[in-house]
Amino acid sequence: MTATSHSRRTVLAATAASAGALALAACGSDDDSSSGSPSPSQAADGGAGSEAGGDEASAGSGSGSAGGTAIADVADVPVGEAVPVTADGQEAMLFRADETTVACFSAICTHAGCSVQPEGVELRCPCHQSVFDAATGEVLGGPAPEPLPAIGVRIEGDQIVTE
After folding, report:
1. What angle do CA 27, 29, 114 make, to 5 degrees?
2. What is the distance between the alpha carbons of residues 35 and 31, in angstroms, rounded to a whole number?
3. Do 142 and 110 meet the contact criterion of CB atoms below 8 Å apart?
4. What is the CA 10 to chain-centroid distance, rounded?
5. pLDDT reported for residue 72
6. The whole model's pTM is what?
7. pLDDT tens digit string along 118-151?
8. Per-residue CA distances from 10 to 7, 19, 20, 22, 132 (Å)
9. Which of 140, 76, 88, 72 lies closest to 109, judged by CA?
10. Which residues pair with 155 in a beta bridge?
């Protein structure tokens, strides 16, 4: 019987390690924000959680970059609201603070992995009622332990594109 419980323990530990690795991989993004190295836009505006919300980087000021993938038309994102989009192959929430400022975050709650829903300037998780600031991704309430991971975006002409 001890061999069986040892085997179960081993299987459970391996399963937990695999699930943890998958969760970390799913939370990562192409802008390396999970590695602690800020993307160029985060360095310019003080990070994804700053009050600036990406003003400088998201103004589409002709940075000369090769352009990212278009994820929405500017006109489809009302000022002061968040809309669901797919960015870098993942569920995301795109928020437009004003005419020139956009921010994008993973739509996956950092508590239990449920998809958050937009409610004006907030993103709410229907599973355990975590609430996030749609402009910064910061936790406003609930059991979520971390802010939503940022996804680099900017306005380019009449499109919102990933960085």
Report:
1. 30
2. 9
3. no
4. 34
5. 97
6. 0.61
7. 998 999 999 999 999 999 999 999 999 999 999 9
8. 5, 14, 15, 18, 37
9. 140
10. 160
| Whole-number Å distance between alpha carbons of 39 and 51 | 17
Residue 92 dihedral angles phi and psi, to the nearest 5°: -145, 165
CA atoms in the 13 A half-sphere facing the CB of 78: 6
Cα dihedral: 36, 41, 44, 50 (round 10)? -70
Please work out, in degrees rounded to the nearest 5, the angle formed at the alpha carbon of residue 137 by the alpha carbons of 132 and 23.
95
Tell me the per-residue pLDDT of 61-104, one tens digit each, with 9 for 90 and over. 333 345 689 999 999 999 999 999 999 899 999 999 999 999 99
Sign of CA dihedral 98, 75, 64, 84: positive
Q: Parse the chain into domains and list their residue ranges.
A: 2-162
The domain over range 2-162 is classified in CATH as 2.102.10.10: yes
